[in-house]
Amino acid sequence: MKFEHVLRSNQFHLGTLEYLFALADKIRKFNRTQEGLLYLRSLLPHKRAMLFFSQPSTRTFLSFQAACQILGIQTSAIRDPATSSEKKGESIEDSLRTFSSYVDLIIMRSPVAGLCEKIAVLLDNTKSWVPIINAGSGPDEHPTQALLDLYTLNRGFKLHGGINGKTICMVGDLKRGRTVRSLSQLLAHYKGVKIIFSSPQEFKIEPDLRAHLQQAGNINFVETTDFVNSISSADAIYMTRIQDEYDSPDNSLQNIDTSQYNLTYEHLAILKPSCKILHPMPRRQELDIKIDQDPRAEYWNQQRNGMWIRAAVIAVLLGVDQEILSHTVTAHHAL
To answer: Do residues 275 and 182 share a domain?
Structure first.
C-alpha cells in the first residue's frame, strides 16, 4: 500500500479502505499492552511532523498529535498565522516550502478550499518534498474525517452485515459541510448503500457532489426536507452543525430555522434498535446531550477512532505499515 499525500477522499478505493481499517485495528490492539505501545513508539522516533492549522480546531489537531505520538513522531505546531512570517507579508507557499525543509510530514488545516492540493503540487516539484495530509480545507474536503467516520460505521455494522446495503441519513448543513461531502464519496464504494440527505432547501448538497454520486452509479441517494421519516428508516444517522463560520454580510444563512432538524431524546423511540448515531463534532442544539447515554450513540467512539485511523494513514505515508501488520506482540502487561 502506498500513497504520497492524503488530499481528497476520492483518492481511496475499497481495497485501500479495508487495508487502512485492518491497520488501524492492529495499531489499537498493540496500544492495549505496554509491550505493544513501546513497539509502536519505536517505529518513527527519527521522524518529525508539523501541524499547520490556520483554521480553529480541537479534535482534529489533538487526534493527529496523538496519532504522531503513538508512532513516536516528534511534532511541532503553528495554530495562528499571526505568529508566523505571514504576518510580515510572506506567502503561505513560501512559508510551507521553508517548513518542509525541517520536517518529514506536514498536516494542514485551512479555511481556503484547495490549498492543501496546491501546496502538495508545489512541494512535488522541489527538492524538499514531504507528504501532505489535508486535515480540512474550507468547505470542500476533510478526507481523514471521512475515513474515521467510515471506520466507525465499519466497526459498528460488523455484527449487522457490514456497510453494504445500509441506509445512511445525513442531516444539517449539507451545502457547506465538508465532512458530508467526503463521507458521501467514500460510501459510493459500497454495494447497495442508500444516502438520505435531509436538510432545509437552503442547505442542500452542492451540484458537484450530486453529479459525482450520480456518476458513481452504484449508490442510491435522495434529497428531502422530511426529517422524521428520514431518521426512522436509517441504519445510521450522521448529524452535522450549521457551518456559520462561512457566513458573511453578503451571504448569510443565519436566519433560517433549522430546529425541526434537531435530533432529540424523544426521537429515539422511532429509530431502529441497531441504528448508529454519528456526529463529527462540535455539536450545538442539533444533537440532544441526553442521547449520549443511549447505546446507539457512536459519536464518542467516533472521536477516539480518529486517532487510530490517522495513525494508520501516517504509518502508510512514512512506510511502516507492513512492519506493523507483520509484527506480533504478547498479551502480557495489559494497560
So the answer is: yes
DSSP, residue by residue, 127-192 = SS---EEEEEETTTB-HHHHHHHHHHHHHHTGGGT-STT-EEEEES-TTT-HHHHHHHHHHTTSTT
**Which domain covers residue 98, as residue numbers?**
9-141+306-326
Distance CA 121, CA 59 (A): 27
Any idea what DSSP says for residue 265? Answer: G
Q: pLDDT by residue (tens digit) across 134-155?
A: 999 887 889 999 999 999 999 9
162 lies in the same domain as 131: no
| Beta-strand pair 276-278/194-198 | unpaired
Cis previous bond, 282, omega within 30: yes
Both 205 and 293 in a single domain? yes
CA nearest 138: which of 245, 296, 36? 245
d(CA 331, CA 36): 9
In a domain, 4, yes or no: no
Number of domains comprising the chain: 2
| Contact assessment for residue 313 and residue 6, using Cβ atoms and an 8 Å cutoff | yes
pTM more than 0.85 = yes
